[in-house]
Write a structure and sequence with these properties.
Length: 301
């Protein structure tokens, strides 16, 4: 199912030579501008592609929702239109990110700027389940993003969260992790409040882009350096692919009753294809039901 202006969607499909006759199109003439207050998704934004899509998801007309639109509107709509799984305190944006070893998940990466220790502990649990059930990582290593590895480091929130995670038998907690160690794959799940997590992800993206540009400029310096590049081209291609966030599609909003994937605002066709693929895997894994069942069982214990 596609949402948006039916006329514009068909025009774009024809231009790209795509046959979308088998797809249902839900018309949405409104546009949710990036400057619009996120809460407007509950009011004037209901007629936009975001609003129409989220309403369709909530009513059972779809199994997943993928959007590269306003992050704030997706978060508000996901929480208040699609709604949370019973027992979830706050849904979290879980960004799958590359490392020098293997992909890891960072949550929260922007949904909740202020958190409690119980929220962070639940994020750790959700991230652990995601890596195990969707990314096929057995007993995922969970770490708490902090300014030092010692258990007493950080604000009272992080000290208290450390104690909760340390005593939770369902989580493979490996302690605190400093930002400089995150790119080396020393944890499968990195837990942070939304403010800290968003800072980490944007710095991560910026450094990766800067590093790639600098390496390119070195090889393009003169004729000799260009010839040298040919000898390492295959290795450089592998490096670029390893650090390419686009192959992970987007960040799932874990904790909602249906699958919601927030794609990057600058997503191209490749990134969007992978975001849709991520949504398919999310739904096929039964992740939402797994979370709901796990929360029920925890409450009964």
């Amino acid at each position: 199912m596609l949402t948006g202006s039916e006329k514009e969607i068909k025009k774009a499909a024809d231009k790209a030579g795509l046959d979308i006759s088998s797809l249902e199109i839900k018309n949405a003439d409104g546009i949710f501008d990036m400057e619009t207050a996120p809460t407007e998704i509950m009011k004037s934004g209901r007629g936009t592609s975001l609003g129409v899509g989220l309403d369709a998801l909530a009513s059972g007309e779809g199994d997943a929702f993928v959007s590269a639109g306003s992050t704030g509107a997706v978060l508000v709509g996901g929480t208040l239109i699609v709604k949370r799984i019973k027992g979830i305190k706050r849904p979290a944006l879980a960004a799958v990110m590359p490392s020098s070893d293997k992909p890891f998940i960072l949550l929260d990466s922007g949904a909740n700027a202020e958190c409690t220790e119980k929220m962070l502990t639940q994020f750790a649990y959700l991230g652990s389940l995601y890596m195990e059930k969707i990314m096929d990582v057995p007993s995922p290593r969970v770490a708490l993003a902090n300014i030092g590895v010692e258990r007493t480091k950080g604000t009272p929130l992080y000290v208290e969260t450390y104690e909760l995670l340390e005593n939770d038998e369902k989580i493979n907690f490996v302690g605190n992790i400093e930002a400089r160690d995150i790119p080396f794959g020393r944890a499968d799940v990195v837990v942070a409040d939304g403010f800290t997590g968003n800072m980490i992800i944007k710095m991560y993206e910026g450094v990766a882009k800067s590093l790639t540009n600098e390496i390119k400029s070195v090889f393009m310096k003169n004729a000799l350096s260009k010839l040298s590049y040919l000898g390492v081209k295959s290795g450089m291609d592998e490096f670029k692919e390893k650090m390419n966030y686009k192959k992970y599609g987007g960040a799932p909003l874990v904790g909602t009753r249906k699958c919601i994937i927030k794609a990057h605002g600058s997503s191209d066709a490749y990134a969007f294809k992978n975001a849709i693929g991520q949504a398919v895997k999310y739904v096929e894994s039964g992740f939402t039901d797994i979370v709901a069942k796990s929360l029920r069982e925890s409450k009964e214990e």
